């Protein structure tokens, strides 16, 4: 973990100026530094010249380091006078030399602050001060220390700090995501905090994937909460950053590193940035990216976090925080390969497929081929299955160059395999074969099966997460409801006033319900339907048990009263509606978090509030006579009946956590305690006659039974929520009491009364079926409140109406019965709907029929959008026994709507939508039906317009197979048309193309044909020889199998004569004829034939004969004459021979020569038969020096080589004897002294001669080397001197003779300059120039002199004399008034010497000085140092162009100007023409080269100073 301290601006001990060096009182002016983060204070307003305040050229860098390591900061400061540097820290001093050391390196000017063996308590903000007498510079830097291990002394210290309320030191920087090791035990179904962090950093398109990963299914709730969290997070982020954008999640790069990016601007550049992995801070570096695993780089506004050397443990949840606020979160996952790619062997022009299966869905893998990343395109297809587990790479049209290693990478996991491409051996040479339509490769396993198994595992994990979250939410809701204060029902007659107030409030807030025949069962959270039954007086029974999220209210009855709003598990209020007489209907069974109470009847009494599962108070209202209505609410408090006018309590059918008991009636008997969900025992009270009241509806853990009445009969045991069996007791007459409302794990049913009818089985919370028994008149008893896993329905009372079906918590359908005037509902054998309505789509103008099937013969009514329907106006309503039909004869747009069928309290509904089947325009259909004809390699395009429609699906098919967008298929869908593009069509792409338009009303199709034209296939072989004679060859073949889509027009025949490479076209024949007669043949010659098929698209590949066909019979020539050896050498033997005497009447086209080495038996041919020697002589060069050979010759005609001649005589490969002779030698050689001398002489001689070298006819010195090789001799002097100059003679001698050759070698050097130059005028207009000879004149007889002249008029030096071997020269045309200068050079074979300068001759040489007669005069001097008047300009010439560069220089005396290229003088370089005319310095390049580019500099120097200018030359391509 990290330990950081808060950055403050205060001064602590050891910080800032101290008493000795810093008085701390200086105040001055703030200055801005070039280095960000440096604060400068200047003490005086204007600095003296040459002085400066302190500043940092390199400031210390923030450091994050592990405990125990060596920590240091470095800084470089400037300033004049030299500043003093002091280090300090915010929270502590740095005076301990064992922990803090300040050092200075004068060589690098670096100030270093070192902390050996750094400890966590040294983590702080450090300051560096630099001060001199003119100012002060200060910079801060943060040190973070990573603690290692657990410190035994740390825990007691933290406890002490907590005890002293020093929380700031105890708290540490942590991510909002807790590390795994410190994670508290999660509650079942709790959402991981990573879920919200990932969502806040993710794109909207990734929301669904993240929700599925964490098992979140309530998207509405998720989005609402996410928006709230985003607003809070953005407010926090705005305190530290701005312009946060471009968030890119973590991904694997091609170089094997992982990185994520984001862009933002820090409001405070000194704000700290932290990185976390799984909630734990990780160290990173900004500079040493190659030494630490993690690195955070800043490029402009972009921050890039990267990791190298990836390992599986690097997977995790990464976050980037600025100070304490999270900016970005991303999840780095590792994906493994379940099935890896396998090696693929493919033929040339075939497609290759690599397949793999990964362990988790991934939208894209990184594919590599031969270490290069691959992308979707013309060469590669990258395919991903719908579940994103199967990934494929298709290498299209494989060629031999495609072979290599291919790899698939998923994070740090990868797999690779070879692609081996085999050449098609059957393909003709020099021609490209046709592309194959087959695919090679694949994994060899059932990838789909592996992917399905993996998907099942992932789905199972996802469903388990969803179930846990759902269970956790339900538990949280129940816990929230249990925390509400326990409330009891109001009882007694003294609370009439309070009841009246409640009734008044309910009247004001009641709302009108929808007008339906059946009662509203308001949003029941049942898998089936929860509806109330009809009471005896025609009103609806309670529809308890509906779990509604809103307000559950009863609907309006026929007489205008509101139906029961029972059973709504509403978070709001469940109240009954108003009856026709103004009273409210029953609000029974409302599972409301609020209050469930009955409404007031017309006489002022409240309606029943039975069955309300309220967390609050469920009480009955006061009737007109003052008595309370039924309080059957499932309250967390106490549900008790109110007091009637006679003092008795009303029914207390509440599901109370306490005891539900009936109140005492006026006669002393207890009221019914029906429906009480008590944890104890729910029993009825004793009536006045001693009998017990009904104990209906008690949710007891024991047994809920009725008490015995006075006559001995048991009271009703209705509604007992018992874990056992809730049954009614036997009355005195033998009948059983009601067993209503028994929440039994078994079956809760009413007992049989004496008259045979069953007692009420209302409210049975049975795991099976809770139904009412049948009474004497055949009607069923009440099945109210059945919390059954089966079906809970109310039975019919004596008058035929159904009893209450309140409180039905059914997993299927909890429905009430029918009203008094309607048939019975389908509740346990009652009328029901066996086949209901569903949504249908009808075609405009066509009939439509809707059918409802009942299980009994009963009446029903049809409604459309709430309005009743009758036969007529194009609609027929019929009934056939239990089948009800509604027929629309011709559907129109007005017939669209919601249709509902109602039979009693049963209803079913479905929506009908009228529309049209998609249609094509006739013209467009006719145009589309025309075939599309393209050539191979071209694109085929189809377009089909249509009318824009909603819910329209467009599909394209080829030969019945649907086409998908991707690869070579491009599908474009526009509102009014669709286009199909097939790229690079092959012959196999020919077929039927179909477009299908589909909407809910039907589908329509249009068909076209794609014809891909190609050149035909090759004719079928083999080629048969029908006839062969000396003048005719006839061949035959078969037509090609594939004509390429168009008929073959003709066949083209070509012929090649054996021994030739040229194919000649003989002609063509029509497609009907598959034979050809070649009449232009020569007897004995062999021919090969090839046949092409041709159609309008081109020529097919050829069909070639397997072997050559000979015309007629083979006739061979006789043997030539015996070869003769003309001459021999060590490299060649020349032969000649005579033609054969008998050529058999066939012309000879050449000869074949064979050789045999002495003492061997093998004859080797020197030329092939198809490369005959046309002449009768031949030079054999394939010989070995000194070996002996014999030769023979065969004559070649059209039939081949004939008999061989007799062998020649043995010939030895050696040269003939020869007198030595020299080949093109050089007789003169000049060498610079000090260099080596190499004299090479080539010669010819046989036998090899003896070589001798002489120097001036004397033997050469021993240090002179002589190297003799075959045909050449070389004399080498390693380091020459002037004394080595001489005439060297080579002498070659053998047995035949000898030869001589002289070579003059002159060793010299650049001459030394001549001596002083003197001038003398002998004749007017002539000046004699004389000089002292050069010291080298006596050593070098080839030395001569050159004289140059300069005058003040032209100011140019020009050569006036050359090749002077004397030491004098007479200059002519010397004019008065002009200054002359002369230079004398010595020159030899090495070049010019330095010049000897003459004195000035001319204008002022004979002037007589004028006396000033004592008057002092001021001398004027024109001397000045060089200066640049016009500098060089920048030039960017193209390569090969000419360049002219110039500048102007002034100075007195005239400066010497030098040109430099990249600091190298180029004055003597011949590639540059440099001139200086009157101070205008020019440099000319004829053709600019690449190496001419660089920095050019002109330097002008005289005795008074130096001036220079420079420019850049860039050479363009």
- What structural category characterises the helix and strand content? mainly beta
Outline the low-pLDDT stretches. 1-26, 150-173, 486-828
What's the gyration radius in Å? 58 Å
Instruction: Tell me about the largest β-sheet.
Output: 7 strands, mixed
Mean pLDDT: 73
Percentage of β-strand residues? 35-45%
What does this protein look like?
By secondary structure, this protein is mainly beta. Mean pLDDT is 73; it is low at 1-26, 150-173 and 486-828.
Entry keywords:
single chain, about 1500 residues, mainly beta, seven-stranded mixed β-sheet, six-stranded antiparallel β-sheet, 8 helices, about 5% helix, about 35% strand, flat, disordered N terminus
Task: Describe the structure concisely.
Helix content is 7%, strand content 35%. The chain is mostly beta strands and 1517 residues long. The model is unreliable at 1-26, 150-173 and 486-828 (pLDDT under 50).
């Amino acid at each position: 973990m990290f330990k950081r301290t808060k950055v403050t601006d205060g001064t602590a001990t050891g910080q800032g100026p101290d008493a000795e060096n810093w008085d701390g009182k200086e105040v001055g002016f703030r200055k801005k530094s070039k280095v960000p983060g440096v604060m400068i204070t200047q003490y005086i307003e204007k600095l003296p010249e040459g002085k400066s305040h302190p500043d940092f050229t390199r400031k210390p860098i923030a450091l994050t380091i592990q405990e125990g390591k060596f920590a240091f900061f470095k800084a470089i400061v400037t300033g004049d006078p030299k500043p003093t540097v002091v280090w300090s820290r915010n929270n502590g001093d740095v005076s301990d030399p064992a922990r803090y050391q300040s050092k200075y390196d004068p060589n690098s000017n670096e100030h270093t602050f070192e902390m050996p063996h750094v400890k966590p308590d040294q983590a702080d903000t450090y300051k560096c001060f630099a001060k001199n007498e003119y100012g002060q510079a200060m910079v801060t830097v943060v040190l973070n220390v990573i603690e290692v291990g657990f410190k035994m002394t740390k825990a007691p210290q933290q406890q002490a700090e907590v005890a002293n309320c020093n929380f700031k030191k105890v708290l540490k920087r942590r991510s909002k995501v807790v590390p795994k090791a410190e994670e508290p035990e999660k509650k079942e179904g709790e959402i991981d905090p990573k879920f919200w962090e990932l969502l806040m950093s993710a794109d909207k398109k990734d929301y669904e994937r993240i929700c599925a990963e964490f098992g979140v299914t309530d998207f509405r709730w998720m989005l609402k909460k996410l928006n709230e969290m985003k607003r809070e997070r953005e407010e926090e982020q705005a305190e530290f950053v701005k312009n946060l954008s471009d968030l890119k999640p973590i991904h694997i790069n091609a170089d094997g590193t992982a990185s994520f990016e984001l862009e933002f601007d820090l409001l405070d550049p000194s704000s700290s940035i932290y990185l976390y992995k799984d909630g734990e801070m990780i160290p990173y570096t900004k500079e040493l990216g190659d030494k630490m695993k993690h690195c955070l780089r800043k490029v402009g506004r972009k921050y890039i976090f990267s990791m190298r050397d990836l390992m599986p443990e690097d997977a995790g949840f990464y976050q980037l925080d600025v100070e304490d606020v999270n900016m970005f979160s991303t999840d780095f996952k590792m994906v493994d390969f379940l099935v890896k790619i396998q090696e693929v062997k493919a033929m040339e022009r075939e497609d290759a497929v690599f397949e793999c299966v990964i362990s988790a869905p991934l939208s894209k893998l990184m594919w590599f081929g031969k270490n290069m990343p691959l992308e979707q395109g013309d060469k590669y297809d990258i395919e991903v299955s719908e579940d994103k587990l199967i990934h494929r790479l298709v290498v299209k049209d494989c060629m031999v160059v495609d072979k290599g290693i291919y790899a698939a990478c998923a994070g740090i996991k990868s797999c690779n395999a070879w692609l081996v491409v085999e050449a098609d051996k059957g393909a003709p040479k020099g021609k490209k074969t046709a592309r194959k339509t087959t695919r090679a490769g694949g994994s060899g396993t059932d990838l789909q099966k592996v992917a399905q198994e993996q998907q099942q595992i992932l789905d199972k994990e996802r469903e388990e997460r969803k179930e846990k979250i759902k269970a956790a939410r339900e538990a949280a809701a129940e816990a929230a409801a249990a925390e509400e204060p326990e409330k009891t029902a109001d009882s007694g007659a003294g609370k009439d006033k309070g009841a009246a107030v409640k009734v008044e409030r309910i009247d004001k807030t009641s709302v009108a319900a929808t007008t339906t025949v059946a009662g509203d069962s308001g949003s029941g959270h049942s898998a089936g339907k929860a509806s109330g039954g009809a009471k005896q007086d025609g009103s609806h029974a309670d529809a308890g048990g509906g779990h509604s999220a809103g307000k559950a209210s009863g609907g309006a009855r026929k007489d205008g009263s509101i139906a029961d709003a029972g059973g709504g598990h509403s978070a709001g209020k469940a109240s009954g509606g108003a009856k026709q007489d103004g009273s409210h209907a029953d609000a029974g069974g409302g599972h409301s978090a609020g209050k469930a109470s009955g409404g007031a009847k017309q006489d002022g009494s409240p309606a029943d509030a039975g069955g309300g599962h309220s967390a609050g108070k469920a009480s009955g209202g006061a009737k007109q006579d003052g008595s309370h209505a039924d309080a059957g609410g499932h309250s967390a408090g106490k549900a008790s009946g109110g007091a009637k006018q006679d003092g008795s309590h009303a029914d207390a059918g509440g599901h109370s956590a306490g005891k539900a008991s009936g109140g005492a009636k006026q006669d002393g008997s207890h009221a019914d305690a029906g429906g009480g969900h008590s944890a104890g025992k729910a029993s009825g009270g004793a009536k006045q006659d001693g009998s017990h009241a009904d104990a209906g509806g008690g949710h007891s853990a024991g047994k809920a039974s009725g008490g015995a009445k006075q006559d001995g009969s048991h009271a009703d045991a209705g509604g007992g929520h018992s874990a056992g069996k809730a049954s009614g007791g036997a009355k005195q007459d033998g009948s059983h009491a009601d067993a209503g409302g028994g929440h039994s794990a078994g079956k809760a049913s009413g007992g049989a009364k004496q008259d045979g009818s069953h007692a009420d089985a209302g409210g049975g919370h049975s795991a099976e079926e809770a139904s009412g028994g049948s009474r004497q008149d055949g009607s069923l008893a009440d099945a109210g409140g059945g919390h059954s896993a089966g079906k809970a329905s109310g039975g019919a009372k004596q008058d035929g109406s159904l009893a209450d079906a309140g409180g039905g918590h059914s997993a299927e359908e909890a429905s009430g019965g029918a009203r008094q005037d309607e048939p019975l509902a389908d509740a346990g054998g009652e009328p029901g709907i066996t086949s209901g309505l569903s949504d249908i789509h009808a075609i405009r103008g066509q009939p439509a029929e809707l059918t409802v099937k009942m299980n009994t013969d009963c009446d029903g009514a049809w409604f459309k959008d709430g309005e009743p329907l009758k036969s007529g106006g194009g609609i027929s309503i019929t009934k056939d026994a239990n089948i009800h039909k509604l027929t629309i004869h011709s559907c129109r747009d007005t017939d669209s709507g919601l249709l509902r069928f109602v039979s009693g309290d049963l209803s079913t509904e479905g929506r009908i939508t009228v529309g049209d089947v998609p249609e094509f325009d006739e013209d467009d259909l006719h145009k589309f039906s025309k075939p599309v004809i393209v050539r191979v390699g071209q694109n085929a395009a189809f377009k089909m317009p249509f009318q824009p429609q909603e819910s329209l699906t467009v599909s394209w098919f080829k030969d019945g197979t649907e086409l998908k967008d991707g690869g070579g298929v491009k599908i474009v869908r526009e509102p009014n048309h669709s286009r199909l593009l097939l790229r690079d069509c092959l012959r196999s792409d020919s077929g039927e193309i179909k477009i299908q338009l589909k909407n809910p009303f039907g589908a329509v199709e249009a068909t076209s044909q794609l014809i891909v034209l190609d050149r035909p296939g090759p004719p079928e072989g083999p080629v048969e020889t029908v006839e062969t004679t000396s003048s005719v060859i006839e061949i035959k073949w078969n037509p090609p199998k594939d004509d390429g889509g168009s008929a073959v027009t003709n066949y083209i025949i070509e012929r090649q004569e054996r021994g030739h490479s040229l194919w000649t076209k003989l002609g063509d024949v029509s497609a009907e004829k598959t034979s050809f007669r070649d009449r232009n043949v020569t007897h004995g010659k062999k021919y090969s034939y090839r046949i092409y098929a041709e159609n309008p698209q081109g020529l097919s590949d050829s069909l070639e004969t397997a072997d050559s066909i000979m015309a007629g019979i083979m006739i061979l020539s006789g043997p030539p004459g015996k070869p003769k050896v003309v001459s021999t050498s060590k490299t060649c033997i020349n032969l000649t021979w005579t033609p054969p005497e008998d050529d058999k009447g066939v012309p000879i086209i050449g000869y074949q020569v064979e050789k045999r080495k002495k003492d061997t038996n093998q004859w080797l041919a020197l030329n092939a038969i198809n490369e005959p020697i046309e002449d009768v002589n031949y030079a054999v060069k394939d010989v070995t020096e000194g070996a002996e050979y014999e030769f023979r010759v065969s004559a070649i005609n059209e039939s081949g080589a004939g008999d061989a001649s007799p062998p020649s005589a043995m010939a030895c490969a050696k040269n003939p004897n020869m007198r030595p002779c020299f080949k093109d030698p050089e007789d003169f050689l000049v060498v610079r002294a000090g260099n080596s001398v190499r004299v090479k002489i080539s010669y010819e001689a046989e036998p090899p001669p003896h070589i001798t070298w002489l120097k001036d006819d004397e033997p050469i010195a021993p240090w002179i080397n002589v190297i003799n090789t075959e045909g050449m001799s070389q004399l080498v002097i390693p380091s020459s001197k002037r004394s080595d100059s001489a005439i060297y003679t080579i002498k070659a001698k053998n047995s035949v003779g000898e030869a001589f050759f002289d070579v003059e070698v002159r060793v010299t050097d650049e001459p030394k300059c001549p001596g002083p130059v003197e001038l003398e005028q002998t004749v007017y207009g002539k000046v004699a120039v004389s000089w002292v000879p050069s010291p080298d004149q006596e050593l070098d007889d080839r030395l001569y002199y050159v004289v140059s002249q300069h005058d003040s008029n032209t100011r140019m030096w020009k050569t006036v004399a050359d090749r002077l071997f004397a030491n004098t020269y007479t200059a002519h045309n010397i004019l008065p008034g002009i200054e002359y200068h002369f230079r004398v050079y010595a020159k030899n074979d090495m070049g010019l010497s330095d010049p000897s300068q003459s004195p000035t001759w001319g204008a002022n040489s004979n002037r007589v000085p004028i006396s000033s007669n004592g008057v002092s005069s001021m001398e004027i001097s024109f001397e000045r140092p060089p200066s640049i008047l016009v500098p060089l300009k920048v030039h960017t010439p193209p390569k090969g162009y000419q360049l002219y560069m110039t500048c102007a220089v002034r100075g007195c005396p005239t400066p010497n100007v030098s040109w430099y290229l990249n600091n190298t003088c180029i004055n003597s370089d011949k590639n540059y023409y440099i001139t200086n005319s009157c101070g205008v310095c020019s440099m000319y390049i004829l053709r600019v080269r690449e190496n001419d580019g660089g920095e050019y500099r002109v330097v002008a120097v005289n005795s008074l100073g130096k001036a220079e200018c420079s420019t850049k030359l860039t050479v363009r391509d």
